[in-house]
Each structure stands twice: as structure tokens, then as C-alpha cells.
Amino acid sequence: MASDKVIVTCALTGVLANREQCPHLPYTPVEIAEEAKRAYDAGASVVHIHGREDDGAQSWSTEVYGAIKAEVNKRCPIVVNFSTGGFNMGVDGEDAKRARLDYIRAVKPEVAALNMGSMNYAKYSQKRRAFVFDFVFPNPFGDIVTCLEAMREGGVKPELECFDAGHIHNAEPLRAMGLLHGPTQYSFILGVLGGIAPTADALAYMSRAIPSDSTWEIIGISRVQWRLLAAALSLGGNIRVGLEDNFYLDAAGTQMAQGNGPLVEKAVRMARDVGREPATPDEARAMLSVGKAWPATA
């Protein structure tokens, strides 16, 4: 058991959260890179990153993403994973959607997230008896293909983000078309209203539904995160924490983390408590087959 490695990913900033909610969120490339270094020092081997403008707005700029990757690489050897979430929202036409993904082709992160299906995406306040936000998150197959093509052109490994069990099986036609092949990496995102229930039973089912040569991680959203991490560690999966997913060090939501580092430190402690050791970045690259699944086409 002591030799059982676990990949700890840290999602540094996200796009929906802001500094009014959590003052420790990084926005600028330097701030994001400093948080990446803190996550690495705490035991993370992968960082998941959304580009942001200096005021915190979401960014699709190749210049911004290029600066982020350069600043991270100056500070540590951690695996860089860029988001593509919502690249298709607010734009019409295939050319415009492809242009939004220029940062993937040009900056070439080692890994990039790929949302595997459309869904309702909401947050409900029990106290207010009202929705805090409520929208449809569109990811039709045509847009998934556009994103996969950009990743292939950049030599980038896709990370298949699944909010529900049906999203897992959306990979099958992509394999048949030759657009996706193993070994694949899945991320199961539990805790979003509109997706699968955030339970250990649901996670166990999803972990059994993927191809045998695949790796997987849990992304637990908000206060259910720590319970889901415990389940994933017991099931042999990898884990993700970070301010994108959850601000708090406790399930009650009373201890806000002072940055990403403390969240990673807790995740590493949990892993070691069950006999699993955090993977180094190079071990994570080998486990994820980074550089093997998506050879650059150039």
C-alpha cells in the first residue's frame, strides 16, 4: 500500500468564483504561478488553470495563457492542465469557436480539460429557497470534436470531464471516429446541481464504467469535497482540490483556506493516512501517459 501513488491536482482559480467570495483567489499570471508553486510544494503534481484577465474576468487570450505557463514553468516542474470549459458559449460559428481555442494550439499545455456533455448547471440556496445561478452548459458533440481537434493539433492530452454517468459513454463514438484513443484520463465532477448525485455509490459506479486502461480522478464541488476525496482514495482513484472547487478546509465551511497550498496539504495528509503517497510530476506524467496519447501533428 505504501507504494500506491496518487495524483493530486490543484485547480487554482476557476472562473465563477471571485475575490468577494474568497480574497485568496489568484487572477494575474504571476499570482496564478505563485499559487502553482505553493500547490507543488504542498504535494500537488498537476495544476488545472483557467485564464483570467487582471480584473478577474475570464480570458481566452493566447498571450494570457502563454504568460501563465511561462510563469509556472519558471517556478516548478508541475504538470500544466488548461481549461477549455465554456469555449463555445457566447460565440456563433465554427471559425469563432476554433479561434477561441488558439491558446491550446499555441501554448500547448501538457493536458487540457474536455467537457463531455451538455447539462443544466445550477446552484441552489436552501436558506433563500432560490437558485443562486441557473444556466444550461452546452457541450454538443460537434463542439467536443472541435475541441479535440485543437488538442490534437497542439499535442495536448485530453482530460475527459464527466458530470454525469452518461457523459462517460459519450467517449465511445469519438473513439470509433478515431478522434480519441486510450489510455484515457477521466475526471468525475460531483456536487453540481444538474449532474449526478455526489455520493460514494455514484462515484463507485462511474469508476467501474470506464475502460480498463484508463485513469480517473474525483472533483468534488463545495463542502461534499472531503467526503468524496475519502471515497476516491479508498477506490484507488486520483484526487483534485483547489479554490476553484471549494474554499474551506472543513466540511462545515467554517475554516476558509488561506490559498491553495493548505487545501493540497490536507489532501496529501488524507492520502497518506490510507497508505497512498502523492505522485511526483514525472510520476504523474507516466501515469497519465502524457505525450503518448496525443502526439503533435506538426
Description of the structure:
36% of the residues lie in helices and 20% in strands. It starts with a strand and ends in a 10-residue tail after the last helix. The longest helix is centred in the N-terminal third of the chain and has 14 residues, at 29-42. It has 298 residues and is α/β, with parallel strands linked by helices. Helix 1 runs parallel beside helix 10 (260-273) and helix 8 crosses helix 9. Helix 8 links the parallel strand 9 and strand 10. The chain has a single domain (4-288), classed as TIM Barrel. It is built from eleven helices and twelve strands. It has helices at 29-42, 62-75, 94-100, 102-107, 141-154, 165-169, 171-176, 200-208, 225-235, 260-273, 281-288, and strands at 4-6, 8-11, 46-49, 79-82, 111-115, 119-125, 130-137, 157-162, 185-190, 215-220, 238-241, 276-278.
Compact description:
This protein is 36% helix and 20% strand. It has helices at 29-42, 62-75, 94-100, 102-107, 141-154, 165-169, 171-176, 200-208, 225-235, 260-273, 281-288; strands spanning 4-6, 8-11, 46-49, 79-82, 111-115, 119-125, 130-137, 157-162, 185-190, 215-220, 238-241, 276-278.
